[in-house]
Amino acid sequence: MITSLHLPYPPSVNHYWGQAGKQKFIGKKGKEFRMAVSEVCIDMELSTLDGRLAVHVAIWPPDNRKRDVDNVLKPLLDAMEHAGVYENDSQIDELHIIRRPPMRGGSCSVLVLSI
């Protein structure tokens, strides 16, 4: 089974989480991204994937600023789990990410494959 998602550009892990004292929580940008991913998945009427998975991610950053590609993975994978794409991101055995040229507003494409 292959699931293909077209999503907004994820916030970096630095903007996904907030912190008050010792307590960490999902910040405003994180909540907005989670909601956007959930809406895409609801519109697609996806069933939750089980078993072992491979995930292929292509990102189009919103601008030319220097960015670490791995900073968008945790927010992206957590939001897809929250949206019910899979039960838990521990199901992922293979993970690929590629950065594409910047695109106005940014974008993200994800393929999730059962392996």
SSE layout and pairing:
Layout: E1 2-7, H1 13-16, E2 17-20, E3 23-26, H2 28-44, E4 53-60, H3 73-82, E5 92-99, E6 107-114
Parallel strand pairs: 4-5
Antiparallel strand pairs: 1-6, 2-3, 4-6
Helix pairs in contact: 2-3
Task: Sketch the major β-sheet.
Answer: 4 strands, mixed
Q: Tally the helices: what do you get?
A: 3
Helix content: 25-40%
* Beta strand %: 25-35%
Q: How many beta-strand elements? A: 6
N- and C-termini, Cα separation:
8 Å
Describe this structure as you would to a colleague:
The chain is an alpha+beta fold and 115 residues long. Helix content is 27%, strand content 33%. It contains 3 helices and 6 strands, in the order E-H-E-E-H-E-H-E-E. The strands form 2 sheets. It has a 4-stranded mixed beta sheet, with helices on one face. A two-stranded antiparallel sheet has the order 2-3. Strand 4, helix 3 (73-82) and strand 5 form a beta-alpha-beta unit. It is globular and about 40 Å long. The protein starts with a strand and ends with a strand.
